Amino acid sequence: MIWDKFPRDGIPWFATNPGEDIVLTTRVRIARNLAEHKFLTRCNKREKTGILTLVKENLVNSPLGELGSYHRMQDLSSDEKKFLVERHLISSDLSASREPSGVFLLEGDHALSIMINEEDHLRTGSIYPGYNLENSFNRLKSVDEILADYLSYAYSSRWGYLTACPTNCGTAMRASFLCHLPGIVTLNEFEKFREGLILRDLSVRGFYGEGTQVYGNIFQIYTNKSLGMTQNGLLDIAREGLEFITGFERQCRKKLREELFFQMENKVWRTVGIIKYAKALSSSDALKYLSTIWLGYSLKILMSNGKSYFPSDSFILVQPTHLQLMLEARLTSQERDVFRAQYIRRKLSSEEWYKVSMD
């Protein structure tokens, strides 16, 4: 099974250090199409299979072939594909595709995935924990340069790299941050925040990207320019945008602590009660409560015992497929909800605040 290649009790590229409580992950991705091949929207099944075969052969023969494993979507079970989506390694679109498609995975302390026949012939993404823009970009750049030695990309001296969506032409690169923004949401400042993002050439999506919902106050914020930009220029936009994001969220948390502390204290401790005694928790409720608990850390309402800090990868590990993987059993929706509540209690039970008895 594909998940045998990954640790089950944690996600190295999702783990944040103490003090990193806003930016969960940094991702840089690039899109590439093969020269002298149609875009996927114009390809028939035979042509898509040919692209898949060509890319696979060159990947396997390149230095990258020694680092990871290649998997065809049609060979993966539904649970395996859901597992990859939950880990943010492939898109929901690729998972749902019935066309010839595949993914080439590289594993390590970071995560790098190459999606084949998603929207473009190739979409390569590099993810690092917390704020790691330079590391993510440098890793991705080195992989792209290797691939360029084996594959001929569609490129125009005027338009840059050619992509299925015109807005992705140019560098065909995007940088994005998965951010935890409970302060902005709690103070109902999100529309003002969104306006600030637009002014800085940034856009916002849900937990799992375009067209997905927001869970646990977690948002994917990404650069929306590619055409007419250099890679360094795009990275500058990402850096400046991150300063705005973290600054805005910090201001909101400061206001919550200074002006609304009692209300927040009440909300956090009520959430502790739910976590400690709930018999079952849905995915959406679990993420909402985990977000509140983490905010409680940030506002100094809940104090860590000094040996641990909030396990941010819990946002991934409580997802349905990951829970089934932990138990190595097929669970009904109700059974998952029961096990999710038990898992969260075990995850947090060693913290000092969890052991407090309220009068």
What does this structure look like?
There is one protein chain. The chain has an 8-stranded antiparallel β-sheet with strand order 2-3-4-5-1-8-10-9, with helices on one face. It is of the alpha+beta class and 359 residues long. Helix 8 packs across helix 9 (283-298). The N and C termini lie far apart (49 Å). It has 2 domains: 9-254, Creatine Kinase, Chain A, domain 2 (2-Layer Sandwich), CATH 3.30.590; 261-353. The mean pLDDT is 89. It has 12 helices and 10 strands. The longest helix is centred in the last third of the chain and has 29 residues, at 231-259.
Strand content: 15-25%
Question: What name does CATH use for the topology of the largest domain?
Answer: Creatine Kinase, Chain A, domain 2
Would you tell me the structural class of the helices and strands? alpha+beta
State the helical fraction.
40-55%
Q: Main sheet: which strands, in order across?
A: 2-3-4-5-1-8-10-9
What kind of sheet is the major sheet? 8 strands, antiparallel
Order of helices and strands: EHEHHEEEHEEEHHEEHHHHHH
Runs in which pLDDT lies below 50 for 5 or more consecutive residues are none
In short:
This protein is α+β, with helices and mostly antiparallel strands. Helix content is 42%, strand content 16%.
Indicate the topology.
Elements: E1 23-32, H1 45-61, E2 68-72, H2 78-86, H3 92-96, E3 102-107, E4 111-116, E5 122-129, H4 133-148, E6 155-156, E7 160-161, E8 173-180, H5 182-186, H6 190-199, E9 202-205, E10 218-223, H7 231-259, H8 261-277, H9 283-298, H10 314-317, H11 320-327, H12 333-348
Antiparallel strand pairs: 1-5, 1-8, 2-3, 3-4, 4-5, 6-7, 8-10, 9-10
Helix pairs in contact: 8-9
